[in-house]
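Possible race condition, two jobs.
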Amino acid sequence: MQSSLIHMGQRLKQILRQKKIKIVDFAKMAGFTNQIAHYHLRKSDMKRTTMERFCILIGITPDEFVRWNGAMEMSGDKSLHHGDRLQNLIAEKGLNKSKLAERLGMSRRTMYNVFEKEVFSPDELERVAKGLDMSTEAFLNPGNVQEARQTDSEEMMLLREKYYKLLEEHHHLLKSYATLKDDVIQVKKELAGLRKQVHGKKA
């Protein structure tokens, strides 16, 4: 395998540098400490699953990681431009830019500046992904958008099932309440009848 002939940590460091992603930002994106980030950058070998996850986070394919030669950032169009990706998603989803800017907590002008950015900071990435109702990994890996939608769909199904279950329980409680109410009314009538009987005997 070609990846065994390269120093995986050094390759990762090179890609991060050329994509202008700071190690501290990469650590935040990956969800671990700076120390662990540096640990991965020092390691000569890397698990395939780990490499694939890192590739998703920095917006490249595993094949690009292995073949990275330092010129791909300038000559290849395969590397993901975050600003362009955002614009494409806005068009794809048919979103209103003014409303999206408001949802992202920024002015329309600021959002247009974001369109120009090649790489978002972790905070920007998280904010944009949240505003678009998708995960950061789905944003960074266009090929997995359908998968992300499927996950969202599964979550919606679970929520719908939970909603129907609660609705059923609510309906059951309402029926129980109605039955208890009828019982209380019946008991009151019986008590009223007994009182009349007692008063009649006293008289």
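Job #2 (started ~2 s after job #1):
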Amino acid sequence: MVMNYAHRGASGYFPENTMLAFVKAVEMGCDGIETDVQMTRDGVLVLIHDERVDRTTNGSGLVKDYTYAELCRLDAGLWNGVQFAGAKIPTAVELLLLARDTGIGLDFEIKNGIIQYEGIEEKLIELIYCYGWQERVVLSSFNHYSMVHCKEITPDLKTGLLYMEGLYRPNIYARTAHADALHPYFYAVNEDIIREAHLEGLLVNTFTVNDLATMRRLIRMGVDGIITNHPGRLRSVIAGDKKCLNGLWKG
């Protein structure tokens, strides 16, 4: 069964990384939510993609320079449409509570690249265990040192290595980082990579896939998860491919 991960929530329709986008993704039938974790000046874990607040709020500056109370004064919905005015930057705790209420999985991407957030891994892992969601979480990052550090903190949480380009034998590389999954950009994955990853016991979750043809192709190639801005669209494709396997798919 392919995992349907909503990329920053249902971000194809609603302002990304807001509780509205997360709730709507669940309503659209996602299996999990992918989101981005950064940290405020006073150590609160918040969910926003960019290191700066400029693109997705009416504020300006780096997330790390704001206190959580200051971030709460920013509007994180207006940029996406006046109908979304008033949306706020959520915390990791808010999403964990939603996950616990609905049973969805979570993919927390730790944004520990451009800005080095000291202790972010420890804080996030502590929260995940506090809310009892360790069995339904994967931690991911483009900073693979961060993923190794997560495994040093606890080997029990799953980690996924994000990457953009065509790594040579990524299954072997993943072994050096003690990772559980590969998270390649969809252009950087093929059947050989998926097969070799599965032989190593690795999952392959690919991003960010929004068109129907590519969704179908990746499902047939055997990926374990697809990260998409359109979880409702992917849900329909997955249902269609089930019919295909049963000899019933006509479209």
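Residues 231-245 form the longest helix (15 residues).
Logs attached separately.
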